[in-house]
Amino acid sequence: MDASRRLGLAGFFATAVTFGPARNGYGLFLPEIRGEFGLSTQVLGFVASGLYAGYLGALLAVGLLAARTGPRLPVLVGLLSAGVGMALVAFSPNPAILAAGVVLAGTGAGWSWAPYNDAVGREVPASSRDRVLSVISTGTTFGITVAGLAALAATTYGLPWRAAWFAFAAVSLAAAALNAALLYPGTAEARETKAAGWPDLGWFWCAASAPLFGVALSFGVTNAVYWSFAADLVSGAAGSPPATGPLLYVGLGTFGFAGLATGEAVARFGLRRTLAATLVSLGVAVGLLGLAPGSLPAVAASAALFGSGVMFMSALLSLWSSAVFRERPSTGFTAALLVFGTGSIVGPALVGAAADEYGLGWIFIFVAALAISTALIRPAPDGNGPGF
Q1: Torsion from C-alpha of 354, 359, 360, 364, nearest 10 degrees
Q2: Which is nearest to 137 in space by CA: 375, 334, 316?
Q3: CB 338 within 8 A of CB 350
Q4: Whose C-alpha in 76, 88, 143, 307 is 20 to 30 A from the C-alpha of 171?
Q5: In whole angstroms, what is the distance from residue 97 CA to residue 9 CA?
Q6: Are 34 and 44 in contact (CB under 8 A)?
Q7: How sure is the predictor about 99, in pLDDT bands with cuts at 50, 70 and 90?
Q8: Cβ-contact 324, 223 below 8 angstroms
Q9: CA nearest 23: which of 313, 311, 227?
């Protein structure tokens, strides 16, 4: 198996688990969790922020570890963390154990994505890198679709929501075994990077990185708020059937496969236009739920726009950061994800604090305005970039 297929397959399933049920399963099952444990929106918001804080902590660790060991070790740590965390959720007897499991599962996403940027940069020909990175990032959609179908089955047939989390944990361990077989250990290039040392802060900040970090921060807020509260918002709307939340996630995952076309879209239309269109799509998707959470056409349109938009945006951050930080793509991508993670922590915490006073609908409208206004940020021109 050549490097493109090997890394694409391993990365697809790693992101499917860690960015699917491990990171986004909490929002999907939020109505069930709220009902069983009797938690308020404020507490649920803080747990969601804790999830993204765990993600951020793992990103800090992987930035130091991946360059020294190669991709296999951090990816395996991420998949095992996701598996153990989801098992804790499945067997949680109280809110404290539940929160610990949610946070631990959330760290898996931080461990398991960025190392693939280095692996792809070292092993995949330049002509195929954008396509392979798009395949890896789009693994998320498969995981979200499967998680949504599991929740739909639980809702339809009255199965315990905990059974789905137990199944997610088992799949995470299987994905760890697959990555252990397909990923190579540390390479000579990794040892050379270790010898070179960690770059100082000035290496991260330049004219080209400022727009990247601004978009990453806004996307972090938008992404975390939607995934954490969208299912709860539509499930609690007047007239919504119980299956609306799971169906929303199935739609998000299904339309997310559009992210496979990110590399081709950037090559044809350029990064600037593709980025602006994606951010507007995300804003409209969030705004639709804020304005009409009980309307099935609005929910369907939101799923289509957000599912495709979030996968495009995830791939765009990967492609964009690899162009800005060419010498160390994994380290640069980790920096962008750290900024993204900061926005992800702030977003749910603010929603939890403000939801009781203003309502989730108005919060979603505000976040929609934030996403659309971010489309005004323009990537710095770079003749060597991916179709700027």
Answers
A1: -80
A2: 316
A3: no
A4: 307
A5: 33
A6: yes
A7: very high
A8: no
A9: 227
Domains and CATH numbers, the chain: 3-374 (1.20.1250.20)
C-beta separation of 95 from 174 below 8 A: no
CB of 285 within 8 A of CB of 169?
no
Q: Quick check: 279 and 379 in contact, CB under 8 A?
A: no
The closest alpha carbon to 308, from 267, 343, 280, 268, belongs to 280
Cα-atom radius of gyration of the chain, to the nearest Å? 19
8 Å CB contact between 318 and 15:
no
Of 18, 5, 42, 38, give the one whose Cα is nearest residue 228.
42
E strands in the chain: none
Question: What are 280's two structure tokens?
Answer: 């507007």
Cα-Cα end-to-end distance for the chain: 33
**Two tokens, residue 14:** 């790693």
261-303 tens-digit pLDDT: 887 898 899 889 999 999 999 999 999 999 999 999 999 999 9
Q: Report yes or no: 131 and 263 within 8 Å, Cβ to Cβ.
A: yes
CB 162 within 8 A of CB 38: no
Length of the chain, please?
A: 388
